[in-house]
Prior knowledge:
Elements: E1 23-26, E2 31-34, H1 40-46, E3 54-56, H2 62-65, H3 72-78, E4 82-86, H4 88-97, E5 113-117, E6 123-125, E7 128-137, E8 140-147, E9 150-153, H5 161-167, E10 172-176, H6 189-199, E11 203-207, H7 216-221, E12 227-229
Parallel strand pairs: 2-3, 3-4, 4-5, 9-10, 10-11, 11-12
Antiparallel strand pairs: 1-2, 6-7, 7-8, 8-9
Bound molecules: zinc ion (2 copies).
Amino acid sequence: MVACKCAVCKSADSKDKRLRSSVHIQSSSTSVVIDTTPDFRYQMLRSDIEQLDGVVFTHAHKDHIAGLDDVKAFNFIHQSVMPLFANKETADAIKRDFYYAFAEKKYPGVPSLELHVKEKEVFSVGDLHFQPIQVKHLHMDVTGYRIGDFTYITDANYISDEEKQKIKGSKVLVLNALRKEKHLSHFTLQEAIDLAVELQVPTTYFTHISHQLGLHNEVSKELPAGMYLAYDGLVIHVD
Length: 239
Ligand SMILES: [Zn+2]
Ligand SMILES: [Zn+2]
């Protein structure tokens, strides 16, 4: 966190150095990111992503959409429009925040975006199929996604039984776990562990971690089998 002097923020361990949460999904032919964080540009450079076929959004909080303008590099390199997928509430916020990209007369060089509203139905980007999973972030609807045997849920503190059914059977779950102390809109570490146990997913990674959770190395030792703290640059292979 900016200006913080805590042990995590001052840690020399690269796994304690976190940019904002997102995930890049790559199949044999398709490349998608979930959310464009304020760090999106650097995340794309750092991971050497040369192709991006679409962006899928979880919700409109700034830490999940602020970097969207930088998709214009992909527009320019590939001479193509970037398809975006989001629920209506998120799509409306994107149109407000990036109004200039949706203007009738656009200033030259603004990103070229094509916004698709998706609520509950499965949709596809190339050969990747996204099953939306609706979760609650206090009273805001946030969309998690299941792609084959991989499920990504960020910014949640409640999931209904009906939506939990959509997660069951996943091989890998990525789930938000902010810190140990109670929080009004995010799962705590214990709440996330309990949910992972309930859902019987064999492998779970915790993400959207605050500096308040503690050092990666120390917290990792406290986790049950099959549960891990995610870290920047982590690569997961799902068959
Ligand atoms: Zn949020
Ligand atoms: Zn967030």
